[in-house]
Amino acid sequence: MRVLVTGGTGFLGSSLVERLLELGDEVVVLDNFWRGDPENLNHIKDEITLLEGDASQATAYQAIKDASSIDIVYHLAAINGTKWFHEEARMVMDVNLNSTLRAIEFAEKYQCRLVFTSSPEAYGNSEVMPLGGPESSVFTHPSHHQRHAYGGSKYLGELAVHHAVRQGLDARIVRPFNGYGPRLSHDEYGQVVTMMMRSALDSSIVQVHGDGMQTRSLTWVEDIIEGIVLSGRLDSCLKTGESLSGCSFNLGSTEEISMLELGEKICQIVHEKTNRVAKIEFREGYPGDSQRRLPRIVDAEESLGWAATTSLEVGLRQTLDSML
Known about the structure:
Elements: E1 2-6, H1 11-22, E2 26-31, E3 49-52, E4 72-75, H2 82-87, H3 89-110, E5 113-117, H4 148-166, E6 171-176, E7 179-180, H5 192-203, E8 205-209, E9 215-216, E10 219-220, H6 221-233, E11 248-251, E12 257-258, H7 259-274, E13 279-283, H8 298-304, H9 312-323
């Protein structure tokens, strides 16, 4: 197959590109390198077509040669990172929503399958757990904080995808739950696992927001990638044989952990690997932070035959190894 990956030099995108090549696909990557890094694909640069361009601009897609031969669009281009949601809310909304609309338009024009990478944040502050079923999204009043710039953009992206499905597009939605692994950003705009690890290595401090009792379901990158690939390659539900168009799949581990427990575990494995002693430091968290994230994975299990298989212990150690 010939596939297009938007945001293909980022954390998830670069791992997806690697996996697609292993499967024998011809891969075109579209990325403006704002969050991604072309060096993530240096080892396979001669095996792919890498195009520098903004996925939120229609003109960027014009650089794709033989666009009519694209079979699947995996749309991952987006701005992620909690700090960005509060500091650049309008930019987050602009890029995330417009890149999704442009990817849909491309898929419609060339009649190719679309896989949209959404997020559990599309449910806002929903307290229904496990999360990710037919329940309603819940968003706080916009005057309270800007965190939902991201979740709101993903919610609207899902809405746009379902509208396109009603117009005849074969599209599917995936929601990765707190992916982690090598190449995950660890600067102040990054994600929790590698931010904690980098801080432990550099300053012997692991920062935990609030009281640390908020929980997450951290999911190993290769498990997420397998779910994304299956959602694009399978034509129909493994259980019922029905079309997967319009279906949504939550890709997350059911191994839940509090942020305090995570910080303590990272302190432990950093000490084992480096003999460095790191300590927990509590700090004020971001407004609107969810107290719990546990995925509802029954649809992914039944339709894709998918479940996360990598334990948190194994994944954390492999992630730390990649940073040493």
